[in-house]
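Annex B.
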Amino acid sequence: MKRKDFLKLSGLSFGAYLLADLPAFAKVIDPQAALDRIDTSLKKELADVALNVAKSKGATYADVRIGRYLNQTIATQEKRVRGLQSTESYGVGIRVIADGCWGFAATDKVDKDNIAQATALAIAIAKGNARFMAEPVQLAPQKGLGEQTWATPIEKNPFEVPVGEKVELLLAANQSALDGGANFVTSNLFMINEQKYFASTDGSYIDQDIHRIWPTFTVTAIDRSSGKFETRDSLSAPMGMGYEYLTPGTPYKIDGVPVTLYKDRYDILADAATAAQHAKEKIGAKSVAPGKYDLVLDPLHLGLTIHESVGHSTELDRVLGYEANYAGTSFLTLDKWEAKNFNFGNELVNVVADRTQLGSLGAVGYDDEGVPAGKWDVIKDGILVNYQTIRDQAHILGLDASQGCCYADSWNSIQFQRMPNISLLPNKKSRKVADIIKNVEKGIYIVGRGSYSIDQQRYNFQFGGQLFYEISNGRIVGMLKDVAYQANTQEFWNAMADIADEEDYRLFGTFFDGKGQPSQVSAVSHGSSTAHFKGINVINTGRAIG
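TldD protein: predicted C-alpha cells.
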C-alpha cells in the first residue's frame, strides 16, 4: 500500500493517531521507535541505585522493575482504518520491605537522582504502613539467580512488520468477509511487547523480552426482509508468539464437524470468509429447545469456562478474601484444600498451572518477583490439591517457595498475585473428537466464546458461545442458535464424561483479564482438548418473556 493511499483510507497520519484510552504514563510514538533498545548494562546500573539506597535506609528486602511497555493497535471497519495507535510507557517501580511492611513508589524519570528519590519514598511509605501492621510480611526465600535473560521465542517481531502491511492484511480480511456475504465487519490487531528488567537484594538481575499478539474480527450478516441479524467473531486465539502466527498453516479439521479450526498458525482471510457464511446461516438456524443436553465443548469455548470456574476460583488471594471487590472471592476455601479429598470434579478432571508452555500468553522465564516459571497440579483426579501463590502467600500453604504467580501490568503498578496458564490435561489414551460425538445421543457441539456470567464465589454460572450444532444419534445434524448452558462449578466438572487426546489440544486465551484496585490487566491462556459433559441444563436466550 502506498503511503498516500493509506492516509486516504485512514484520514490519519503517524503524528495524529486516533487514540483510545492510553495506559498510564504512556506516550504516542512513531512505530519505528518501538525498535529502539535500552542497554542492559545501563538498566543494571540504575537498578543498583535503588537497591543500594533501599539497603542504606533500612530495607530488609527490595526489588526494582525497569519496564518498557510497547503497545500497537490497529482497528479497521469494512474498507477503512478506524484507528492506529503505537504507544510506549517507560519507567521504574521500586518495592521494599521496611519495619516488616511493604512500600512501593514509581517514577517515569529514569535517572539516578529520581530513582533514589522514589526509593526513599517507598521506604517512607513502608515505615508509615508499619504503624498499622497486624503482622509482618513473611516472604518465601528465593535464591539470587545472578544475571539471567529470557525472551519469547518469536520468528518475526510484529513491531518490525511495516504498519501498511498489517493494515492491508486487516482490510483484506474485511473484504474476504464482505465477499462472503457479510454486511458489516470490524477487525483489530493487538500487539504487545514487555521489556522488563528485574533486580532484587536477593541477587537476581533478570532481563526479559515478552511478546503477545491477537488478531480478531467480528462480522455481521443481516436479513433485510426480516430485519434479523447475527454475528460471528474470529476463531483466533491470542498467543504468546510473533507475527508468524498470522502466516497461514494447515487448518485443523475434525471429521464430521463443519468448522475450520486453527492451532499455532491462523489464516485470518479464510476465517473471515467462513465467518460470513456462519453468520448468514445463524439467521435461519433452529432455535434451541430448552432442556438437558450432553455438551461437546471445543477448546475455544471451554477455555473461558476453565478461566472463570477454575482459574479465578483457585487464586489464593480470592480464597483468603484479600481480593473481593473485583469479581468476588472463591468458594474453594482453605478447609476444602486442607481436607485433601474435596471433590472438585470427577477423576477425568486434571488441571495444571503452567507458566512454561511456549506459545501461551502466560509463558515467561521468571515472574515479577524473580521466581523461575514452573508447572504444578491444581486439580488432580478431580481433587483440589493446590492454589496459585506468590512469595508473601507461600507460608499460608506451608510452602517453602513461591509458585511464581506475581505480575504487574506496568512499571508503575505494584505487582500482586495473577493467574498463570490454567489448563485441562488431555486424555492420555487415543481419543478423537469424532469418536466422542458418535457416543452422544442428544447433544450440542459448541465453538467459541460468547456472553457469560458467574457469581461472586465463582460457583453458579451461565455461558453462551459463537457456534452451536445439534448432535443427534452420534452425528452433527445442523446449526442451532439462542443457546446458553447453566450449572455450578462442582456439578459441571463432575459431569465430565470424556476428553479428546493430545492431538486435539489447543489454547484459548484472554488478552485483557482485569483484577485489582486500581485495576490491572494481564493475559493468560487455557489449554484443553475437546471435552464431553453429560446432562447439562440448556436455556433458550432468544425467548420473549411474558
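Residues 1-20 have pLDDT under 50 and may be disordered. The CA atoms of residues 464 and 484 lie 4 Å apart. Further annotation is deferred to the next reporting cycle.
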